[in-house]
Amino acid sequence: INHTRVTEFIMQGLFDHPHHQGLFFGLFLCLYTAVVMGNSLIIAAIVLHPPLHTPMYFFIANLAIVDIFCTSSVLPKMMKNLMQEKKTISFDGCMAQLFAFTLSGGTELVLLTAMSYDRYVAICHPLRYVNLMTKRICISLAVGVWSVSITNSLVHTLLMLRLDFCGPKLIQHFFCEIPPLLALSCSSIYFNEIMIFIANTFLAMGNFLLTTVSYSFIIITILKIQSFKGKQRAFSTCSSHLLVVTLFYSSIIYTYIRPTSSDSLAKDKMAAIMYTLVIPTMNPLIYTLRNKEVKVAFGKIFSFRKK
């Protein structure tokens, strides 16, 4: 049967109240600016301040890049649609957004696992830390993180490109994500579902288990420390990362693992706002509020700009 191929999709959007669109545009613009500026400052501080040239901050810089990329893949188009009566996105634009969002999500997932391993080595094997987390090993871990994520995103996108979309073309979301797009396909999605299952099993569950194992050893090691100050010092080295991991996995689990209900769509949208905008906004704050070295680096950057 010959199908008329869809050349553009219509977005349902985030809100159903047109008279609030301008207000939300201003709010999201401020938050998007905060994401870009906050994470860019983190990257600049780590690059320009030599005391921050350590494995932990190397991975934090990668996380900041991922946060900017994740938010930029979704927010600009969403804000544009907020100010338009007809919220559309071209087929090619949708596939590009799907690739970018899947890439950023997968990268953050694997990157948080690499950061968990870094904290595990720092707390459980402090005397061997310099040898186990050399510059070469850190770069290899980062290359592995990005390679796995790019491969995963590319496979999902190519499998999506092979599908037929012949209508309806209303995406039940405010950006192009795999589940709402599969719901619109008029051809078999069998291979797509297999790939989703594989990705969920090895990429999502695998990284979750590795992160859990790392923190189990970290907690056991901290509990064995005799002095209270020693325990406090050890916990402070991983508290920021643990908070970021908790926020990220909480939003992912809430979105993809909870049972469906009549208001699942609205909950999906709120959860998506959480991991595409709120978490990238909070990450720079989490890593800087209690970190003296980063504050010193920020001070040097701003003092240099004043000169």
From TrEMBL:
Cross-referenced InterPro entries: GPCR_Rhodpsn, GPCR_Rhodpsn_7TM, Olfact_rcpt, Olfactory_GPCR
Membrane topology category: Multi-pass membrane protein
Domain of life: Eukaryota
Cited SUPFAM superfamilies: Family A G protein-coupled receptor-like
Single GO cellular component term: plasma membrane
Protein localization: Cell membrane
Keywords linked to the UniProt accession: Cell membrane, G-protein coupled receptor, Membrane, Olfaction, Receptor, Sensory transduction, Transducer, Transmembrane, Transmembrane helix
Domain G-protein coupled receptors family 1 profile: 38-287
Main location: membrane
Matching Pfam families: 7tm_4
GO MF term set: G protein-coupled receptor activity; olfactory receptor activity
Annotated TM spans: 23-48, 54-75, 137-161, 197-223, 235-257, 269-289
Transmembrane recorded as keyword: yes
Membership in a protein family: Belongs to the G-protein coupled receptor 1 family.
Stated name of the protein: Olfactory receptor
Gene field: LOC112123012
